[in-house]
Design a protein that fits this description.
Blueprint (H helix, E strand, L loop, with lengths): L1 E3 L5 H17 L9 E7 L4 E7 L3 E5 L16 H18 L7 E8 L5 H11 L7 E6 L9 E9 L7 E4 L8 E4 L3 E8 L5 H18 L7 E8 L5 H12 L7 E5 L8 E9 L11 E4 L13 E4 L4 E4 L9 H16 L9 E8 L2 H14 L7 E6 L10 E7 L3
Parallel strand pairs: 1-2, 5-6, 11-12, 17-18
Antiparallel strand pairs: 2-3, 3-16, 4-7, 4-9, 5-7, 8-9, 10-13, 10-15, 11-13, 14-15, 16-19, 17-19
Helix pairs in contact: 4-5, 6-7
Length: about 400
């Protein structure tokens, strides 16, 4: 395990970069203990600002709720519930050769913003060692009444997959998960179609299937689906549509966030998929920024990114110093630029972005300022969701980012 901090003088940052490059050069066969590099780990939050993970199999879980083996809610407090969520995520990982000790990214969904500090305290207790995952917080209504917290995780796995993706259904012992084998992966930006929730979900899934076909893969390659829907109380409609759409296949792990949206677009869906070597052109660069036929190519996001680069960098949710919309966006991108440098990346090697905003003014600023930071030929695949909160009362923006080394 290598730990780097960005709160150092410039010459030390340079030396850390040299050390990191030497570490990778001389360690041609990384051991499981050295699969991850943590940047600026924080003992108080139990998280790192970024985690760079080597070319290993990665477990992606479903959004995990605080329920027992019978699916019944357990725990009266957010602390009790979150302990149970972490235990269930660990069980999912161990079922397929991983564990929370190998977690590289944790996405936390809170019913109430004021519970963020309690969750951070629990993470600080859970991750007391050298390794701490990147963490992102979102405030959203949850699909289970009286649930206060849920989470999904990405964990490194010692398992050697038998194919590009192995999907495992939920049972009494563990939540649903999928193992993405070491190698190529695909990030598809959120897509949305109009209609009632039933119709819009089915039409959006069909559109995503066409996008998968464009990059030479199919439904069997899907690793995880994230749906932004309104209202989240109708999640059973979406689950049923996805289950029917995948037919006899085990569905991928699912994640749900309540989306504050217009009635004509009740759902937006993004996904992660595997990109086996035989589906990628021989001369493909480490990252491709792609647009399927019939879709436009916006300068601030790509419809699809296809990644052949071996390593992945997961970034924790970042925040500005106050709630001024223009300042929040500017400061978050400045932080992101600074953080990516010691991790061996830059803004031109972002591959996936999920922007969570909780007011229209910061959403507008995000649209206005992204061209200042992104190469219009290389923006990340992205979704932007209006949500009830971003994990802090005094902020209205956070970003869930994934990058690769340059």
């Amino acid at each position: 395990m290598l730990i780097l901090s960005r709160t150092k003088p410039l010459f030390l940052k340079w030396w850390q970069s040299v050390l990191y490059c030497s570490f990778l050069f001389f360690t041609t066969d990384l051991t499981r203990a050295n699969d991850m590099v943590c940047f600026s780990p924080n003992d108080r939050s139990g998280s790192s600002e970024a985690v760079r993970v080597a070319a290993v199999d990665l477990v992606h879980t479903e959004q995990t709720l605080p329920v027992d083996a019978n699916g019944q809610l357990r725990g009266d407090s957010v602390a009790d519930q979150f302990h149970l969520v972490l235990s269930r995520l660990d069980a999912a990982g161990r079922h397929v050769g991983g564990s929370l000790d190998q977690c590289v990214k944790l996405n936390v969904y809170l019913e109430r913003t004021e519970d963020t500090d309690a969750v951070r305290t629990i993470l600080a207790e859970r991750f007391q060692g050298a390794h701490k995952p990147a963490v992102c917080y979102v405030t959203t209504k949850l699909s289970l009444p009286d649930a206060l917290v849920a989470a999904d995780a990405v964990m490194a796995s010692k398992r050697r997959s038998t194919g590009p993706v192995e999907r495992f259904a939920a049972d009494a012992a563990h939540p649903a998960c999928a193992v993405l084998s070491a190698g190529g992966r695909i990030y598809i930006s959120g897509q949305a179609e109009s209609g009632d929730l039933h119709t819009a979900t089915r039409k959006t899934l069909e559109s995503l299937r066409q996008s998968l076909k464009f990059v030479n893969v199919d439904l069997s390659h899907v690793v995880q689906i994230k749906s932004f829907l309104t209202p989240v109380s109708d999640v059973a409609v979406v689950e049923r549509e996805i289950r029917d759409f995948f037919g006899e296949q085990t569905p991928p792990p699912l994640v749900f966030v309540e989306w504050i949206s217009g009635a004509t677009t009740p759902i937006e869906i993004e996904l992660i998929a595997a990109a086996p070597r035989d589906t990628v052109p021989d001369n493909a660069p480490p990252v491709e920024y792609l647009t399927p036929p019939g879709m436009t190519s916006p300068p601030i996001y790509s419809r699809i990114t296809r990644v052949s680069a071996a390593e992945t960098i997961y970034i924790s949710g970042l925040y500005g110093s106050d709630n001024n919309p223009e300042k929040q966006v500017r400061e978050v991108f400045e932080q992101l630029t600074e953080l990516l440098q010691p991790a061996g990346s830059d803004l031109r090697h972002l591959v996936k972005a999920t922007y969570y905003v909780s007011d229209e003014s910061v959403s507008a600023q995000l649209n206005a300022q992204r061209p200042n930071y992104y190469d219009p030929q290389r923006p990340p695949a992205a979704s932007k969701a209006m949500v009830s909160g971003v994990g802090r009362h005094d902020r209205t923006l956070t970003m869930d980012m994934i990058a690769v080394p340059h």
